[in-house]
Specification:
Helix 1 crosses helix 2 and helix 2 packs across helix 6. The protein has eight helices and ten strands. It is globular, with a radius of gyration of 19 Å. The protein is an alpha/beta fold. The protein has one domain: Rossmann fold (3-Layer(aba) Sandwich). The strands form three sheets. Strands 5-4-3-6-8-7 form a six-stranded mixed β-sheet, with helices on both faces. A two-stranded antiparallel ribbon has the order 1-2.
């Protein structure tokens, strides 16, 4: 974006990001302020009646940079409650020492070879199963914490992609493009999509700009490859977004919310995603391991 145009809000700094959900061109500071409001609104959808004792933000292998940005935003939100979120780091993917940014309040853990083998197999088979299996692992690791919730770095077109893929392939029920996956209960932590309603390109751009002077080192992270079917679905979604921009994502979301309300589905015991059975197709291989 040209730096000649000033921010639509502050009228002082150069506009660097076009905010689709606001239809504005904003500077980084103003954009992050609006993004914080969006994340806070998504978290408030959990309808927590008491101040959460523990808040977790995973350093997610699919969205590592967006995860760090989300952690910074959630940290700002929780600061007013005198709480500090935990950054969940799976050391099998990267040791905390390999990430160059300053990390405090890190909850790092190493998964067993059996779980890692299952996750890597899921990764080879596709993005949807990998996303839900990883979420199941995060839920299992934080299940013992009272009044806790997990803020996932899911952004709008990615969540729409998950639903569209599941609908086209019929592999499993899906209702991912929503703010809240599960509420806080005695059975485990709540799960919320932190960047629900925000296009992924904006989140990625904000992450690069935010960490521009001190970029994290994710060189060890392997590039994720889509399966052939996922590539076709992704191109369909990308064409729709290019044609109608942010409006396409809203229409897809409305369509799948309507479909979800008209279909009966259960919640998977592990990943809390929509499922035909008590355990979804993606989490069956994790039974007895987490």
């Amino acid at each position: 974006m040209s730096s000649n145009k000033l921010c639509d809000d502050c009228r002082k700094k150069p506009a660097v990001i076009k905010a689709g959900f606001l239809n504005k061109k904003l500077c980084l500071d103003c954009y992050l302020s609006e993004l914080e409001k969006k994340v806070k609104r998504n978290i408030s959808a959990l309808r927590i009646r008491e101040v959460a004792q523990n808040v977790f933000v995973p350093l997610h292998p699919i969205f590592p940079l967006s995860s760090l940005l989300l952690y910074r935003i959630v940290d700002r939100i929780e600061r007013r409650f005198q709480k500090k979120p935990f950054l969940l780091v799976i050391e099998n993917f990267w040791p905390t020492t390999s990430i160059s940014v300053s990390l405090d309040n890190v909850y790092s853990f190493k998964l067993s070879e059996s779980i890692m083998k299952t996750l890597l197999e899921k990764k080879k088979r596709g993005l949807v199963g990998y996303w839900r299996a990883l979420r199941a692992v995060y839920i299992a690791l934080t299940k013992s914490y009272h009044s806790a919730f997990i803020v996932m770095p899911g952004c709008s077109d990615f969540l729409a992609f998950l639903d569209l893929y599941s609908f086209i392939t019929g592999v499993e029920r899906s209702n991912e493009n929503i703010p809240v996956i599960s509420f806080v209960s005695d059975e485990g932590p709540g799960v919320v999509n932190g960047f629900y309603g925000v296009p992924c390109r904006e989140v990625v751009a904000a992450g690069y700009l935010f960490f521009k002077d001190n970029p994290p080192n994710f060189n060890q992270q392997e590039r994720f490859l889509l399966t052939k079917t996922e590539s076709i679905v992704y191109r369909m979604l990308l064409d729709a977004v290019k044609e109608r921009s942010y409006e396409a994502l809203i229409n897809i979301e409305k369509t799948f919310l309507f479909m979800a309300s008209s279909l009966e589905y259960k919640k998977c015991r592990y990943c809390r995603g929509a499922s035909r059975e008590d355990v979804c197709t993606f989490c069956k291989e994790l039974e007895g391991k987490i």
